[in-house]
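Quick one:
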Amino acid sequence: MKKILIAGASGFIGHALIERLLAHEGIEIVALSRKSRPSDHPRLTWKQCDLFSLKDIQLAMDGCTEAYYLVHSMLPSASLSQGTFYDFDLIIADNFVRAAIEHKLQHLIYLGGMIPPVTELSWHLRSRLEVETTLRESGIPTTALRAGLIIGPHGSSFTILQRLIERLPIMICPAWTKTRSQPVALADILKVLERSCFEPKVENGVYDIGGPEILTYQGLIQKAATLVRKTRTIITLNIIPLFLSRFWVSLITGVPRNLVYPLVLSLRHEMVADPNRLWPFPEDLTTGLDETLKVALLGVTPNTYVGYLPIQRDVRSIQRLVLPPGRDAVWVAKEYFHWLPNFFSTLIRVKVEGDLCTFYLVHPEIQILVLKRSEERSTPERQLLYVVGGILSGEQDRGRLEFRVVLNRQYVMAALHEFRPSLPWWLYKYSQALVHLIVMKAYGEHLKWHVIKSKPEANLKTQTMG
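Output:
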């Protein structure tokens, strides 16, 4: 029996995929969710899992043979989230790969977005590509599915389109709405995902997944409006700046800016399947656009996007830093603790004794933060330190700081997870939280200096000046 893990199982695609896979008798499914939920099927197990926690994923993946990765992290994952959605995505994907390697998974299936042949991708599409690269570099056979706009009830992109049609009788559209796209039906995406699990032929392949019809976004809007019998007038103004159109779409649809902005940026690019990367089973992609839109428009769409609503006042802060050549996470962590006292001059000092790192104010008795390195959970590629004390630390459950090497040793991620401050929340946000960002940005510049110093031409220049 195949035991398949689905990350992103609570999303509109993951939920539909579960039903489809359970139709196969030889399938057992482990579905991951932030919140625990009961199962209504003997071969379906829901497991509570924070994808930002490597330990959670490792425990959830135990016994699985294959996995679907249907995850994005454009909505906040903590009471205070510092960082970009693409850095959050990268951390989650890296966690997933580390766990998959440990459990020796036989196959990964990733659903991302089409990557147009341009040099400057939007960060949304660049993130999709980074996640795909992270999964494929694991050495585990990986099927990468790059889909166009997926049309189905509950889909975030389609919900934006639907609400624009419902709420705006006259639409003043920017130039990017004339870009061509190749939308695909949710029903067809499910066929492709299902076949990817059972067809060895598609393992390790990269495929563009688009429906049978190519049209502009304006054409898609008009077609959808016609089906719901609404007359919509579209006026194109090429002078509308992108930031204004993003703000306007978020305001009219009620969808959070965190979700709208990356999606709108991606719509600048033409999303049409590359003839060299077509899905080898065209019979899976035959649902007509009219039929697809009818099904989606008759579906029930959520009124709001709330994402994860944290109960506790917790903090997640992730920064991407360059990794100097020949260095690892051990060096980055040690260098950070060595550099930090110099950055604060004599005000804040750091004392490292064994696995214990203490930040104190002027005198060692005034401890402001205490971190303890986890020997068991740390490796040369990832250093993990738990927050265990200090006057600036509230009661911690899993508060931790980590340095991890990612993307074939190009970067190191400095990440603070599930930290709970002792300061009043409003004071923390405008004091300690801002200081943390300033410190990490400065440390990033310090690492860049090490990169420059390591280059041969820089060394030659130094020798010449000497």
